[in-house]
Write a structure and sequence with these properties.
The protein has about 400 residues and is α+β, with helices and mostly antiparallel strands. Helix content is about 45%, strand content about 10%.
Length: about 400
């Protein structure tokens, strides 16, 4: 971003003209995309300098959903702060659940049972599938097709039925606890998962036939929005964005944790680095998550405590120390760093949001694009703005 103040004291005339006055070319217009616009997937604002239909400059403006999530972590007990972790990324809340409890457990020196680890992986992969379904359907809706999102939400409802059985909620899920989870995997949850896996596997070929092979879609996203390895490395992009650029990095493999080393799954990687590559990574990841769920149901021990130990209470403080814990969320690497001085609350909480890195590269990638293509690329990043703003 340039250093022009957001509200110049000597502002004359239109605000948007003043905001882009430096370096503004002749006969260009300033287009304000958002902050209330369906294609921004939340309260995101992008100021675009346009030459006709072409984007000369695009500047994301954040802050409309900033809720001081990190500062709230410094005035609450860890158990009390868990509700916040269900709201940072409302489409993939389980990843934030796990990253926070993982960091807190590291500081406390707490370990959980193997059955609890499997329960956490099950919750995580269900949340990943639900998130990718929304990302897929909403992105295609941005491009003008209404039918796919109806199928996506139909399948997502089945996933949410399972998640509701786990933790009682369907959206801002808080299933994880420091030292365990809130509830054991019930026989009904196992049955729902066993019914969902073959049902979802039958859907994916239909998704490819309906959308992936559609020539209109392919014309809109194939070869468009190149985010290559260099861009990913410079901006810290992870998840489907980096794997679509040929970077085979997945936190579940790169930083082995929980029972993931015991599970057999592939890391989908494409080298085209375009919007279509990112599209295919997400659909492939749904299939891999189904494989993981199937293995977890088969391998999960019948015995083992999953609830937190009785000595971990609502007002339990963290001992002095610091820890960082990262997991592979639906949008990339989710990380939480906690530092404690042994006081009543954590001294510092830092959240690493993958969507922020993905959005950061948009200004560079969008230069010279048609506005319609820029919207398609923005959708390919699968942004959730409450996570970006925090």
């Amino acid at each position: 971003m340039h250093n022009t103040p957001l509200f110049p004291k000597d502002m004359k005339g239109d605000f948007y003209s003043c905001h882009f006055e430096k370096g503004k070319q002749e006969d260009t217009i300033i287009l304000n995309l958002g902050p209330q616009h369906p294609s921004t997937h939340g309260v995101l604002r992008i100021l675009c300098e346009m030459d006709g239909e072409y984007v000369l400059r695009a500047e994301p403006v954040l802050g409309y959903l900033h809720r001081m999530q990190e500062k709230m972590g410094e005035i609450k007990y860890p158990a009390q702060y868990m509700n916040n972790m269900g709201r940072v990324d409302y489409l993939n809340p389980m990843s934030w659940n796990w990253a926070f409890v993982g960091a807190a457990e590291k500081v406390m020196g707490v370990e959980v049972s193997e059955r609890c680890e499997y329960a956490r992986v099950i919750a995580m992969e269900l949340s990943r599938i639900a998130s990718h379904l929304v990302g897929w359907g909403a992105w295609i809706l941005d491009l003008g097709a209404t039918t796919p999102i109806l199928y996506a939400f139909d399948d997502r409802e089945d996933v949410l039925d399972i998640i509701q059985e786990l933790c009682g909620s369907r959206l801002t899920n808080v299933y994880f606890r420091v030292g365990g989870v809130c509830k054991d995997i019930t026989p009904r949850a196992v049955q729902l998962i066993k019914e969902f896996i073959p049902s979802m596997r039958k859907r994916i070929p239909m998704y490819h036939a309906l959308v992936t092979k559609n020539m209109i879609l392919r014309g809109r996203i194939e070869g468009i929005g190149i985010i290559d390895r260099d861009v990913c490395n410079r901006y810290g992009c992870t998840g489907p964005v980096s794997r679509g650029a040929g970077i085979a990095h997945d936190t579940r493999r790169a930083e082995p944790h929980s029972v993931y080393p015991k599970l057999d799954f592939n890391i989908p990687v494409y080298t085209e680095a375009c919007s279509m590559a990112r599209y295919k990574v997400r659909l492939d990841e749904i299939e891999q998550s189904l494989n993981i769920l199937e293995q977890c149901i088969e391998q999960m021990p019948a015995e083992g405590d999953v609830l937190p130990a009785k000595n971990i209470k609502f007002n339990t403080k963290l001992p002095a120390g610091e820890a960082y814990y990262a997991v592979e969320g639906a949008r990339g690497k989710v990380g939480v760093w906690i530092a404690s001085d042994g006081g009543k609350y954590p001294y510092r909480v830092k959240l690493r949001a993958p969507g922020f890195c993905s959005l950061s590269c948009f200004a560079e990638v969008a230069k010279g694009m048609l506005l319609a293509d820029a919207i398609a690329v923005l959708g390919s990043l699968d942004l959730v703005i409450p996570e970006v703003d925090r």
